[in-house]
Amino acid sequence: MTSRERVLTAFAHREPDRVPCWCGASAEFWAKAKTALGLDDEGLRLRLRDDFRRVFSRYVGPDSFDPLAGLHHGATYRTPFGIERTGLGYGQPTAHPLAAAKLADLEAYPWPDPDWYDVSAIRSEALAYEGQYAILGGEWAPYWHDAIDLLGMDGLYYRMYDEPGFVEALLQRIVSFYAELSRRIFESAADAIDIFFIGNDFGSQNGPLFGEELFRRFLLPPLERLIRLGHRYGLKVMLHCCGGIAPLIPAMIEAGLDGLHAVQPSCTGMDLAVLKKRFGDYILFNGAIDSHHVLIEGTPDSVRRKTQAVLELMKPGGGFVAGASHDTILEETPLENVLAMFDTIYELGAY
């Protein structure tokens, strides 16, 4: 099978030739691995047997909203909604500009314009892989995180109770931007894309960040809107969602979600055997090999043993993509442990 065939067979909850592989890594780990192995980007993907490739829109809008240009001192990134962030990775927001806003103020906020993004090259970039890999496309759409940036986390929670209409209007604004930009991508390139990949972290180490009632009222409708968009163009939809989110999975399945990434077995409620038994026929699980206690703290031998145990639990019947339990393999992760994980997936993942 090609990588694309392998992944789509897994999404169909059938057994492919072997378990598909997924590799997501921090820029720092990726650079370290390339240097150590003497490989370029594509060479490293081939070494790790990554079955996925991803295509992106390109920002061409004003400097004031550019993700990386004209940042204030100490800032590392700017979101599409104009929020500068600082710290490791994408960091934390430096301000919450709508913290004191009222419903009428939303109209005046400088919302981003989908015209600021060029989607014209996406189809040719995807087709360059000649149908060999499962292609991820569409905008990341982290609407929950954008709402936190704009209001502050405490403010967002309070307003869910005190001003629910404001929160719903805010989320509608945020998701409308992502939905329109993704629609343009799919109009241009859906025939070359396989999976609409989006991301929102709804869980913590100890469980969901909110109860099912709040999730269904505020966070599920935007998710369902994006799922319907992807399905309208014949795409599978996969959500990156960290943490102990097991209580929310039934609602996600009801909304039509096809895949869940990256399953974190170290979090409360995320027992792999239970997840596979309860939900394995309805949603694809991606990840499940512990990034922290196994990949960072383990040895190649312990990584191999744990990877084998995860495969034995998750591979039967398809519906599983193997990889680290977080999309960003951190720089401090030993390269030899990551290689041991992917080599074991390849060696023991055959059906």
Q: What's the CATH class label?
A: Alpha Beta
Shape: globular
Question: Taking all residues together, what is the mean pLDDT?
Answer: 97
Provide the β-strand percentage band: 5-15%
Number of strands: 14
Helix amount, in percent?
Answer: 40-55%
Number of helices: 13
Regions with little confidence, pLDDT below 50 for 5+ residues: none
Helix-strand makeup class:
alpha/beta
Rg result:
20 Å
Strand order of the largest sheet: 1-7-8-11-12-13-14
Describe the largest sheet.
7 strands, parallel
Terminus-to-terminus distance: 12 Å
CATH fold topology: TIM Barrel
Number of domains: 1
Can you walk through the features of this model?
With 351 residues, this protein is of the alpha/beta class. It has one domain (3-348): TIM Barrel (Alpha-Beta Barrel). Helices cover 42% and strands 14% of the residues. It has helices spanning 3-11, 27-37, 41-48, 122-127, 143-151, 153-162, 164-189, 212-232, 249-254, 272-279, 291-296, 300-314, 335-348; strands at 52-54, 58-59, 77-78, 84-86, 92-93, 117-118, 134-137, 195-199, 203-204, 207-208, 236-240, 259-263, 284-289, 320-324. It has a 7-stranded parallel β-sheet with strand order 1-7-8-11-12-13-14. Strand 3 (77-78) and strand 4 form a beta hairpin. Helix 5 (143-151) crosses helix 6 (153-162). The longest helix has 26 residues, at 164-189. The radius of gyration is 20 Å and the shape is globular. The model has no long low-confidence stretch (mean pLDDT 97).
Descriptive key words:
351 residues, alpha/beta, 13 helices, three-stranded antiparallel sheet, 14% strand, TIM Barrel
